[in-house]
């Protein structure tokens, strides 16, 4: 009888060890999946790395795919957290989308560093009205029209995002439109794809999120690209407050409100209903300890009031 008891105990111990080594139910509960906006992806990767180091029992899988994918995945329950860099539609709220702001950034117009008219572009900037003529109405088709030099007849090669994204939505709203589908141009998938297309095309124009337009290591635009200064006051020259030569200038312009909103915007996390459990704990960490990594990663912090508002949404 004693041997049978010992044998049963041994089986229990072995089964317990197997469940632990294979990832039992406890470990499954600590796996988080995050997907969505390219705009938030670099910072989310940083947050995930630090949080996992501090919480070894938590595994966080982060993937980009565009704000549209992040929202649809979250609402479908395919991921725990969606990353969203655009406005939230009422129908999405009706389906249970629960959003929490975590940081800010902006969308910037980009051109190739090999653009033959780069010096003039950086000196004059491009106004919202001119960009609308390029991207919405199609009335501006040459670089000569942009620069007020009719003798220049080189065509503008326009690039836009083919995937549903916050960058496209913010860009079209800045230009006076409503939907990303209104943007003219050659559709290219994802933030890196648009930037690569622009870099390779001296006559190209595109738009990119802050941390794709600038190199976080050097603090200047990504090699081969340049950020277009917006001629906000339409005086056909780039004033000091409109300079976007460095990432620090861009961040300061967004933080101070000098850079228009849109295309500046808040970046949000979205869950299906109010977050709970490990998902809630991770987001709560993002809104407290995780905020110290926002500036380091090249993003703009929420104001104290905005941060409190986001923290209160978890209560």
Describe the structure.
The chain folds into two domains: 31-104 and 265-312, Periplasmic binding protein-like II (D-Maltodextrin-Binding Protein, domain 2), CATH 3.40.190; 106-256, D-Maltodextrin-Binding Protein, domain 2, CATH 3.40.190. Mean pLDDT is 92; it is low at 1-27. The radius of gyration is 23 Å and the shape is elongated. The protein is an alpha/beta fold and 315 residues long. It has 14 helices and nine strands. The protein is 41% helix and 18% strand. β1, α3 (41-54) and β2 form a beta-alpha-beta unit. The protein has helices at residues 2-21, 25-29, 41-54, 67-76, 90-94, 118-124, 128-137, 143-147, 166-174, 191-200, 210-213, 247-256, 277-286, 304-312; strands at residues 31-36, 59-64, 81-84, 97-112, 157-161, 186-188, 204-209, 225-227, 264-272. Strands 1, 2, 3, 4, 5, 6, 7, 8 and 9 form a nine-stranded mixed β-sheet that branches.
């Amino acid at each position: 009888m004693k041997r049978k008891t010992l044998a049963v105990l041994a089986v229990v111990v072995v089964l317990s060890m197997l469940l632990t080594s294979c990832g039992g139910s406890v470990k499954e509960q600590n796996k988080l999946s995050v997907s969505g906006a390219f705009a938030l992806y670099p910072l989310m990767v940083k947050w995930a790395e630090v949080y996992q180091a501090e919480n070894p029992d938590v595994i966080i899988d982060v993937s980009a795919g565009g704000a549209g994918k992040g929202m649809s995945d979250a609402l479908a329950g395919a991921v725990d957290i969606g990353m969203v860099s655009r406005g939230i539609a009422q129908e999405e709220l009706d389906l249970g989308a629960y959003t929490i702001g975590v940081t800010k950034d902006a969308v910037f117009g980009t051109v190739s560093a090999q653009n033959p008219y780069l010096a003039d572009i950086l000196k004059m900037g491009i106004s919202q009205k001119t960009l609308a003529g390029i991207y919405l109405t199609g009335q501006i088709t040459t670089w000569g029209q942009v620069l007020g030099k009719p003798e220049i007849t080189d065509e503008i090669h326009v690039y836009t995002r083919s995937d549903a994204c916050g960058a496209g939505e913010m860009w079209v709203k800045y230009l006076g439109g409503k939907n990303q589908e209104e943007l003219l141009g050659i559709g290219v998938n994802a933030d890196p794809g648009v930037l690569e297309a622009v870099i390779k095309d001296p006559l190209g124009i595109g738009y990119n999120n802050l941390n794709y337009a600038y190199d976080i290591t050097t603090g200047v635009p990504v090699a081969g690209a340049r950020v277009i200064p917006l001629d906000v006051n339409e005086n056909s020259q780039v004033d000091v407050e409109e300079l976007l030569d460095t990432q620090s200038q861009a961040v300061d312009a967004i933080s101070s409100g000098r850079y228009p909103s849109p295309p500046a915007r808040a970046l949000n996390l979205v869950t299906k209903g109010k977050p709970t459990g490990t998902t809630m704990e991770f987001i709560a960490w993002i809104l407290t300890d995780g905020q110290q990594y926002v500036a380091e990663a090249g993003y703009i912090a929420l104001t104290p009031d905005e941060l409190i508002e986001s923290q209160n949404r978890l209560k």
